[in-house]
Design brief:
The chain is an all-alpha fold. It has helices at about 5-25, 30-55, 55-60, 65-80, 80-90, 95-105, 105-115, 125-140, 150-170, 175-200, 210-235, 240-245, 250-260, 265-285, 285-290, 295-300.
């Protein structure tokens, strides 16, 4: 596992935690599908502009039909359908249950990666998974209340995102991280646009206020940072490990809510965060964590 790849995935977790906190304010009063479409389009434009500035348009021109199809599938199962399912599910499901279901994505990813990518799971991965699941349950205040239509939509979206991660990891073997990120955002935009046209919601874009457009731009910057660091890191890190690291975003969001919204932390939430962090450390490997710290440079020199 390369240190740079793990560092990028950790950066993604940080961006994710801050982004979720910011999105709570930005999405208010905006139709979720319109919000997702606008952000996807803006980020796709940013990425294709970056590709152009770096003189890498040749990569897009040289893509084969099979590679374009793979990018379209990533956009479908990662950048469009699951968002529509997830936001609709949130309207119907219990918030804590919905969040917990989404957080078990790493389990689905690990199984798929083992079967389709032949990734080897560490011996302590099972213990790490249990700690992560228990930690998330305590952090989110999860209490089993049964499965309804909303929960099924959240589960379906989570499965779609798990499939996307595995396909993306496979695509990154032959494509650059920026090309995969562009494919996800561009084709995701195309599919959501089709949904907006079909449901008659496209006109909502013209009713966005200046304030809402500002929030869309701000959250788009976070999304840009997310996809660029995530796919760059995923190229060098096992997807089963990377999705575990991404869960640290929950800790960041919780701490931001505690600091800026004066939300009290219960002893159970603190325990949950510690268990979650311990599980991620186990999944990544203690030695890999140490190599990311300044301590590793000191020990290497001495």
């Amino acid at each position: 596992m390369e240190k740079r790849g793990l560092g990028l995935v950790l950066a993604t977790a940080l961006i994710s935690g801050v982004s979720i906190f910011i999105n709570k304010f930005g999405v208010a009063g905006i139709d979720s599908s319109v919000f997702a479409f606008a952000k996807n389009v803006i980020v796709a434009v940013f990425i294709v502009s970056l590709i152009g500035l770096l003189g890498e348009f040749r990569q897009l021109k040289q893509l084969t039909k099979k590679q374009w199809i793979k990018l379209a599938v990533i956009g479908l199962v990662g950048g469009s359908v699951p968002f529509l399912m997830f936001f609709r599910g949130l309207q119907l499901a219990n918030a804590a249950t919905a969040a917990f279901i989404h957080k078990i994505m790493f389990v689905f990813v690990a199984v798929m990666a083992f079967v389709f990518l032949k990734e080897k799971l560490k011996k302590n991965y099972l213990v790490a998974a249990v700690l992560i699941l228990l930690g998330n349950g305590l952090l989110l205040g999860f209490v089993w209340q049964g499965i309804g239509a909303g929960e099924m939509l959240i589960l379906g979206a989570t499965l779609f995102w798990a499939v996307e991660q595995v396909i993306s990891k496979h695509a990154l073997k032959e494509l650059s991280s920026k090309v995969v990120a562009f494919g996800r955002m561009f084709f995701g935009s195309v599919f959501i646009l089709a949904y907006l046209l079909f449901t008659g919601k496209l006109a909502l874009l013209t009713s966005l206020s200046v304030s809402q457009l500002g929030w869309i731009m701000v959250t788009s910057v976070f999304l840009l940072g997310y996809v660029l660091t995530w796919y760059s890191g995923l190229k060098h890190v096992d997807v089963s490990v990377a999705t575990c690291v991404l869960l640290l975003g929950s800790v960041i969001t919780t701490l931001l809510s505690f600091v800026f919204l004066d939300k009290l932390l219960t002893i159970w939430q603190v325990a949950g965060m510690l268990m979650l962090i311990a599980g991620v450390v186990l999944a990544v490997g203690y030695s890999n964590i140490i190599h990311l710290t300044p301590w590793s440079k000191w020990t290497a020199q001495n």
